[in-house]
Automatic annotation (TrEMBL):
InterPro entries associated with the record: CheY-like_superfamily (IPR011006), Homeodomain-like_sf (IPR009057), HTH_AraC (IPR018060), Sig_transdc_resp-reg_receiver (IPR001789), Tscrpt_reg_AraC-type_HTH (IPR020449)
CDD domains tied to this protein: REC_YesN-like (cd17536)
PANTHER family linked: ARAC-FAMILY TRANSCRIPTIONAL REGULATOR, HTH-TYPE TRANSCRIPTIONAL ACTIVATOR RHAS
Pfam families xref list: HTH_18 (PF12833), Response_reg (PF00072)
Organism the protein comes from: Paenibacillus shunpengii
Keywords tagged on the record: DNA-binding, Phosphoprotein, Transcription, Transcription regulation
UniProt name for this protein: Response regulator
Biological classification of the source: Bacteria, Bacillati, Bacillota, Bacilli, Bacillales
Domain HTH araC/xylS-type: 432-534
Domain spans labelled Response regulatory: 2-119
Length: 542
């Protein structure tokens, strides 16, 4: 497959040549042109499937070039580059059936995945053309039927389908299978890096993933029948053997996939390899793979085999042995998070080493996580910090859930746990800063409900501890400060607005007017109405 790069800027062309991994995209030849005339010459002489083209060029626009391509009936997938988000450009590009419209400056990772999507479309067009030539256009619908068949088999959670039901489905849907055909299920897990399209643009990422799998699992000995996402970032890949099973071929393909996932998809990956079985036995193998994926803790970029699953005969799951929690606790109380992390990670890898020859199960890692959480929570409690409030929110929940996916994810969660604790411990130790934050909040929200509990939650501190340090820093109790602030705000409203005294009471946080009036008189020496009258008289006499 060939690609043509067209841009009047030499440096843009050079950057595209050098920063896109064309070999990973299975591009055979990259041609370059710096104006429309050069591009036409190349298109006349070479088979070009994909073109990346600038729109604004001094000797003719990219839109003019694409119009000529359409007139000549060349099947070229075109990705336009432009400096301007111009609607007219976009509209014309759509009319000319361009593949995509990409704004500069170029984000090469995203452009790479858009290219992979274009490559997939080129291949799909080739398959369709081939099917038309052979009088087999029905193959396109058959692919949908095949995908539907495998999706049902992969996601069915109630009962295994009977041989009769499978045979009936094969006949009804004209599937190219026999019950005795040997199939191998793989369960692939993807761990997208930060800023990867695996997190930012899932649809585009899935196109790229399918492209990589189609390329790697294409072999005379087996065919890729389906790729089904069974849950977020976990995919079943179904292979059918067309000759005798060769485990080494699958290992090589999985190892190559992990490398390409790192390099091309900007993600880590793991492959759980199932057991080859005829169609009636495949449902149970799929269920076993799902349980294995849930129960076994993996390293990222690792291959695992269903035969290693603890349920398999002779394979035992590792037993949890608690680490030296006293030593870990010492590092916490010395306010040394770095040493704590080093020790915690050593304990984590000791679990793996001590269970040599055994499988590290999710239950073991879950107990380790619980010990780490209890240590950190106990430490924070000793510092009057409310850990259950501190560790709430989307980031914590995502890291907590992912912590059982792999050893590396557990490391990441423990690091987040201790780093957050250390940072907040340092903040809470600066009592004057904490008190100042509380004072600012009271001033801005004096009309809201303000209690020791609500204010303590705001700064993740024990309410009684917050009240003590507040009085220590200000010389006044927290409750008295709230009243003073509210009365001060009420005085200002009485002086500067025509609001009724009842409305003012509500605005400064008092629904009970008599109680407000009582507090106001205690602080100022007169009722709110008397205060307004006195201020008005004073203003008139000046």
């Amino acid at each position: 497959m060939n690609v043509l790069l067209v841009d009047d800027d030499y440096f843009v062309v050079a950057a595209l040549e050098q920063k896109i991994d064309w070999s990973a995209l299975s591009i055979d030849q990259v041609y370059t042109a710096y104006n429309i005339a050069q591009a036409r010459e190349i298109l006349l002489q070479q088979d070009i499937e994909i073109m990346v083209c600038d729109i604004e060029m001094p000797q003719g626009s990219g839109l003019e070039l694409l119009a000529w391509i359409r007139e000549e009936n060349y099947a070229v997938q075109t990705i336009f580059l432009t400096n301007y988000a111009d609607f007219n450009y976009a509209q014309k590009a759509i009319e000319l059936q361009s593949f995509d419209y990409f704004l500069k400056p170029i984000a090469f990772d995203k452009l790479t995945l858009i290219l992979s999507k274009a490559i997939y479309k080129v291949r799909e067009q080739r398959r369709n053309e081939s099917a038309i030539k052979e009088g087999q256009l029905w193959q396109k619908n058959q692919r949908k039927l095949v995908e539907h068949f495998w999706r049902q088999l992969s996601t069915e959670k109630k009962n295994a389908p009977s041989s009769a039901a499978l045979a009936e489905a094969i006949i009804e849907q004209s599937l190219p299978y026999q019950l005795s055909d040997p199939f191998l299920p793989l369960l692939i897990s993807i761990y997208a890096y930060d800023q990867s399209l695996g997190k930012e643009d899932k649809d585009l990422f899935n196109y790229a993933l399918h492209n990589v799998l189609t390329e790697l699992f294409h072999h005379p000995s087996f065919t890729l029948e389906a790729m089904i996402e069974v849950k977020d970032n976990h995919y079943f890949v179904i292979l059918r053997w067309s000759s005798d099973e060769e485990a080494a071929l699958i290992e090589t393909a999985c190892a190559s996939f992990i490398q390409k996932a790192n390099r091309f998809l900007k993600s880590d990956a793991s492959c759980c390899i199932g057991v080859t079985a005829p169609l009636p036995e495949l449902y149970q193998g799929i269920q076993n793979l799902l349980r294995m994926n849930e129960d076994i803790i993996k390293h990222r970029n690792q291959m695992l085999y269903l035969e290693q699953y603890p349920q398999a005969e002779g394979v035992k799951a590792a037993v949890y042995t608690a680490p030296d929690l006293t030593r870990l606790e010492e590092w916490l109380h010395k306010d040394d998070p770095v040493s704590f992390l080093i020790e915690a990670k050593r304990c984590l890898y000791d679990l793996i080493a001590n269970g040599q020859g055994q499988i590290l199960s999710a239950s073991v890692l879950r107990l380790f996580r619980l010990d780490m959480i209890q240590l950190v929570y106990s430490y924070l409690k000793s510092r009057e910090i409310q850990a259950h409030k501190l560790y709430t929110g989307k980031i914590h929940d995502q890291l907590y859930e992912a912590s059982l996916y792999s050893i590396e994810d557990m490391e990441k969660y423990i690091e987040y746990l201790i780093t957050t604790a250390a940072e907040y411990r340092r903040y809470a130790a600066q009592q004057d800063s904490v008190v100042e934050e509380i004072k600012q909040h009271i001033h801005k929200h004096c009309g809201d409900e303000l209690t020791r509990n609500s204010l303590g939650e705001m700064v993740y501190l024990n309410p009684d501890y917050l009240a003590r340090i507040f009085k220590k820093e200000t010389g006044i109790s927290l409750g008295a400060y709230i009243i003073q602030t509210r009365i001060r705000s009420a005085r200002q409203l009485l002086e500067s607005t025509s609001l009724s005294v009842y409305s003012i009471a509500g605005k400064v946080g008092y629904a009970n007017y008599p109680y407000f009036s009582k507090l106001f008189k205690q602080d100022v020496g007169c009722t709110p109405s008397e205060y307004r009258k006195l201020r008005q008289e004073a203003a008139t006499s000046m």
